[in-house]
Amino acid sequence: MGYIPQQFIKKGELWQSNTMVGICSEKNMLWRLELTILNQTSSVEQVLNYNFYVTY
Predict the structure, then answer these.
(1) Closest CA to 26 of 50, 56, 1
(2) pLDDT digits (tens, 9 = 90+) for 1-56
(3) How far apart are CA 37 and CA 33, in angstroms?
(4) 38 vs 45: CA distance, rounded Å
(5) Residue 39, CA atoms < 13 Å, CB-side half-sphere
(6) Secondary structure of 1-56 as H, E, C letters
(7) What is the model's pTM?
(8) DSSP type of residue 41
(9) Which of 13, 16, 27, 47 makes the best surface tag, with the fewest CB within 10 Å?
(10) Is 39 within 8 Å of 46 (Cβ atoms)?
(11) 21: closest CA among 2, 42, 46, 47?
């Protein structure tokens, strides 16, 4: 599949981003959101993955 860049905005203590994902000929599409987080204090990088389905 493709790559959809995200822009996050900090709202208080939370970070928020909105996106639109596409669908194709499959009724159920599995998408993965992959977040790379960098702790600016310790310079430790962490990658988090979230899988979700889009159904039409």
Answers:
(1) 56
(2) 678 888 999 999 999 999 888 777 788 888 899 999 999 999 999 999 999 998 88
(3) 13
(4) 4
(5) 7
(6) CCCCCCCCEEECCEEECCCCCCCCCCCEEEEEEEEEEECCCCCCEEEEEEEEEEEC
(7) 0.66
(8) T
(9) 13
(10) yes
(11) 2
